[in-house]
Amino acid sequence: MNNAYFQIRFPQNEPVKAYMPGSPERAALKAELEAQRIAPVEVPLIIGGREIFLEQTADIVCPHDHRTVLGRYSVAGEKELQLAVEAAEAARATWEAMPWEQRATIFLKAADLLTGKYRAKMSAACMLGQSKNIYQSEIDSVCELADFLRFNAYYLQEIYKQQPISPDGFWNRVEYRALDGFVAAISPFNFAAIGGNLVSAPAMAGNTVIWKPSSTAVLSNYYVMKLFMEAGLPAGVINFVPCRGVDFGRVVINDPHMAGFHFTGSTEVFNGIWKQVGANIDKYVSYPRLVGETGGKDFIFAHPSADVESLVCAMLLGSFEYQGQKCSAASRAYIPQSLWEAVRARLESEVAQVRIGDVRDCTNLMNAVIDRKSFENIRSYIEFAEASSDAEVIIGGGCDDSVGYFVEPTVILARTPSFRTMVEEIFGPVLTVYVYPDEELDATLHACDTATRYALTGAIFAQDRQAVVDMERALSHAAGNFYINDKPTGAVVGQQPFGGSRGSGTNDKAGSAVNLYRWLSQRAIKETLVPRTVVNYPYMTAE
Ligand code: NAD
Questions:
Q1: What is the per-residue pLDDT across 437-468, written as a single tens digit (0 to 9) for each?
Q2: Distances (CA, A) of 210 to 106, 156, 494
Q3: 105-140 burial by CB neighbour count: b if 16+ within 10 A, else e?
Q4: Residue 266 Cβ < 6 Å to ligand 1
Q5: Residue 522 C-alpha to ligand 1 middle, in angstroms?
Q6: Cα–Cα distance between 109 and 112 in angstroms, integer?
Q7: With contact defined as beta carbons under 8 Å apart, do 292 and 506 qualify?
Q8: Does residue 431 register a pLDDT over 70?
Q9: Which of the four pLDDT bands, split at 50, 70 and 90, describes residue 2?
Q10: For 73-128, what is each residue's pLDDT tens digit?
Q11: Which has fewest Cβ within 10 Å: 2, 155, 397, 424?
C-alpha cells in the first residue's frame, strides 16, 4: 500500500573522525588492520545473491608491502558473466516495481551500517589493499560513500516530486521508470566510494547492475557489496564479478539488454567501450546511456598576487596526497617568475618533511602507488624528464620497489608549457612546474586551457579580485571542478558535485541529481478526465 508522501530529510555530510592517539576509533582500526593483515580472505563472485568460488583466482596484495597477501579473489570468466547477465535480468521487474522509498531505505541503512559497525573493517581494507593512510581512507571508504548513499536517496526523492502542469480537465503525470535493461558498471582502483556509487546510484533508481571492480581494489569493494547485502539488497540487483576487462566487454557490454554503462577510470578505456557500444548500436534494445568520469591533468595556476604559503600548501597536498593517484590531483603548476624563488624554497623545505611508508605508521603522509605497472609507468616519466634538456627534476625522483611500490614526491621544472609531463596524465606523485614571465599571464592562461585533452579539476591562486575574475573567465572550460585559493582535490558530496568535461568525461556529476537522471527513463502519462465526444472543432461552424 502506498498511501502517503514519505519524506527523506536533507542529509548532513558524515563527520570525518580525527583518529587521534587514544581515541576509540583509532584503537578499533588498529585491531582491524592487524586482523586483516594476518588472516587472508577468499573473495567470491556474488551473482544472483549467491557466492561463487572458482579455481581461477588472483592474489590481493598490499601495495606498500607486496609480499603480504591479503587474500585471493575468484576471477569470473565468460560463463559466470553470462550468469550475471541472466541474474540482473531476472531481478529487474521486481526491483523496479519495489516502492522507491523501500529501495532507498536499503541504501540509507547501508550508510548507517557503514558509519557504524563496518567503519573499521571498510577503512582497514582500503588502507591495506589500496595503500591509503587513515585519513585518506576515512574520507573515501567511509565518509564519501555514506554521503553518496544519503544524498542520492534525497536527490532521487526530489526528482520523483517533479511533475508537469495539468490544465483543467486533464491530469498529466510523469513516471520515472528505470532503464529498459541492466546497467554495467566498471570502477577504478583509487576510490572505494566510487565503486559503491557507480553501482548504488543506478540501483537506487530501480535498475539492476553488473559490477566489475578494479583488480587492485577488490577487497574494499567486496566489503561494499557485503554491506549492501546486509542492508537488505535483494538477490541479483547488484552482481559482483571481478574479471578481465576484455571478458566483461565481450559478454556484458555486448549484451542487447545493456541499457546503461557507468564508468570511472582512464579516458582510453572509456573511449574503447564507447566505440564498442557504437559498433553494436543496431543490436541493443534501447540506446545505452554512457556515463564516464575519466582522466585528468589537473592544474594549479598562480597569479603574481598569490599568497605563497597557501599556494605551496595546496601544491604539496593537492599533488602528493594519496601519492597523486586522485583523478583530481594537481600535476601541473603555472607559477609567475616573480614568486618562483619563494615558492621553490618553501616547497623544498615542506616536501623534505614528508614521510613515506606503511599505512600503519600514522606519521606517514604518503604510502605506496598501487602496483608494479603503475610504479614502472611513473618511473618512466621521471627518467624521461631526467634525460631531457627541456626539464629538470628539482625535488625527489627516487623510486624504490624493494618492499612496496614507493615513489618520492617529485617536482619537475619544465622549460616549456608543452613539455610531456605538463600535458600527459601520469597518475603518481609527480608535479611539473612551468615558470612563466609575469607579463605573459594571458598567453600562459591560454596554454593552460589548451595544452591537454582533459578538463577535470583546476585551481587558481590570487589575492587580486580582478585577477580572480579574469582567470576564472579565461579558464571557464578548463575544469569541471574549479577552485579559488584552494587545492583542486577533496570534493565533498553535496558541496562540490564532481566531474569534468572534454577528455575527462561526460560531466554527469557524481553524487548529484544530474547523475541520477541518467538512470531514469520518463514515461509521460496524460489522462483526460472527461474525454471529448465531438469530432468537429468550433471554428468549423459555417458563418
Ligand atoms: P583504468 O582505466 O586502468 O581501469 C578502470 C577500470 O577499467 C578497472 O576496473 C579496469 O580493470 C577496467 N578496464 C581496464 N581495461 C578494460 C577494458 N579493456 N575493458 C573493460 N574494462 C577495462 O583506470 P584506473 O587505473 O583504475 O584508475 C585511474 C584512472 O581513473 C585515471 O585515469 C583517473 O584519472 C581516472 N579516474 C577518474 C575519476 C573521475 O572522477 N574523473 C575518478 C577516479 C579515477
A1: 999 999 999 999 999 999 999 999 999 999 99
A2: 18, 21, 26
A3: bbbbbbbebbbeebbbbbbbbbbbbbbbbbbbbbbb
A4: yes
A5: 30
A6: 5
A7: yes
A8: yes
A9: confident
A10: 999 999 999 999 999 999 999 999 999 999 999 999 999 999 999 999 999 999 99
A11: 2
CA 258 to ligand 1 centroid distance, Å? 20
Mean pLDDT, residues 338-364 taken together = 98
Q: How far apart are CA 110 and CA 116, in angstroms?
A: 10
User: pTM higher than 0.90 for the full model?
Assistant: yes
Q: What is the CATH number of domain 24-294+505-525?
A: 3.40.605.10
Nearest of 301, 298, 280, 300 to residue 290 by alpha carbon: 280
Q: Looking at the CA of residue 269, tell me the nearest atom of ligand 1.
A: 2
Place of cell 541503512: 109
pLDDT at 121: 98
CA distance 198 to 480: 19
Identify the three-state secondary structure at position 118: coil
Three cell numbers at 291?
556515463
| Backbone torsion region of residue 128, taken as left when φ is above 0, otherwise alpha when ψ lies between -120 and 50, otherwise beta | alpha
Check pocket membership of 245 for ligand 1, CB cut-off 6 A: yes
Compute the distance from residue 186 Cα to the ligand 1 centre, in Å.
8
Enumerate the CATH 3.40.309.10 domain ranges in the chain, comma separated. Answer: 298-484
Q: What is the pLDDT of residues 234-272, one digit of tens each?
A: 999 999 999 999 999 999 999 999 999 999 999 999 999
In this structure, what C-alpha cell is assigned to residue 314? 595546496
Return the ligand 1 atom nearest residue 500 CA.
41
Helices (H), 321-440: 337-351, 372-387, 420-423
List the residue whose alpha carbon is closest to atom 11 of ligand 1: 214
Which part of the chain is CATH 3.40.605.10?
A: 24-294+505-525
Is residue 232 within 8 A of residue 109, CB to CB? The reply is yes
Question: Residue 50 belongs to what H/E stretch?
Answer: strand 50-52
- Tell me the CA–centroid distance for residue 198 and ligand 1, in Å: 12
CATH superfamily of 298-484: Aldehyde Dehydrogenase; Chain A, domain 2 (3.40.309.10)
3-class state of residue 291 by DSSP: strand
Which pLDDT value is given to residue 22? 97
140 lines ligand 1 (CB under 6 A): no
Q: How far apart are the first and last CA of the chain?
A: 56
Cβ of 294 below 6 Å from ligand 1: yes
Which among 269, 372, 405 is the best mutation to test ligand 1's pocket, defined by most ligand atoms within 8 Å of the CB? 269
State which amino acid sits at residue 226.
Answer: K
Distance CA 14, CA 193 (A): 13
**35-53 residue pLDDT tens:** 999 999 999 999 999 999 9
Dist. CA 266 → ligand 1 center (Å): 4
Active site residues: 293, 327
Sheet of strand 430-436: strand arrangement: 391-395, 410-414, 430-436, 330-336, 298-302, 457-461, 481-484
